[in-house]
Amino acid sequence: MTAKHDRQNDRRWNHNIHYHPRVLQAIPDGARRALDVGCGEGMLAREIRRTVPHVTGIDLHAPSIDEARAHHDDIDYVLGDFLTHPFEPASFDVIASVATLHHMDAATGLTRMRELLRPGGVLAIVGLARDTLPKDLPHVLAGVVGNAAHRAAKGHWHHPSPTVWPPPATYREMRALAADLLPGSRYRRHLLFRYTLIWRRPPA
């Protein structure tokens, strides 16, 4: 990775990047292999690589994968469908996913991530969900104010990957789904229109 690319990453900000530290803090000690689901142009994968020696990023968007590969680092970037790519079961110590789960059926995606995680491994998700109005109006208003303050100070980087809006599942539905499929997971809703979901697979 070049110093120029490092400086570009340091200047970038958006809602997804804002919550990258939540993923990085969840990486378990001694992790050797990581998977970034929906890696886009590889920004999070490169951050994970600072800690984890073997990182794979997978995405369906060819232009983003091309941009990721242009960094000429040692990350394995795969152009393909995470749900069907022939990864070995229980082969990753950490699986990360930022703003990707709402692009697929959430239950199918979570089940696939669970299957690919080694015992003791950690799943770390930053996700988007749909508000339920009027119940969620206080969250929406707080997010609008927080977003304005952050953008005024940091600007906003528009990622090149495709978007899906609105997200198909609500925040409450995602919380219930996580509790069902990933018992013991930690779900938290955040100010800037995102939730995080952290789960450690029980040891064998």
Automatic annotation (TrEMBL):
Q: Name one Pfam family in it.
A: Methyltransf_11
* Cited InterPro entries: Methyltransf_11, SAM-dependent_MTases_sf
Please list the GO biological process terms of this entry: methylation
Cross-referenced SUPFAM superfamilies: S-adenosyl-L-methionine-dependent methyltransferases (SSF53335)
Give the record's keywords alphabetically.
Answer: Methyltransferase, Transferase
Q: Where is the Methyltransferase type domain?
A: 35-125
Q: Which CDD domains match?
A: AdoMet_MTases
User: GO MF terms on file?
Assistant: methyltransferase activity
Enzyme Commission number(s) from the entry: 2.1.-.-
Q: Which residues form a coiled coil?
A: none
Which protein are we looking at? Answer: Class I SAM-dependent methyltransferase
The organism's lineage is: Bacteria, Bacillati, Actinomycetota, Actinomycetes, Kitasatosporales
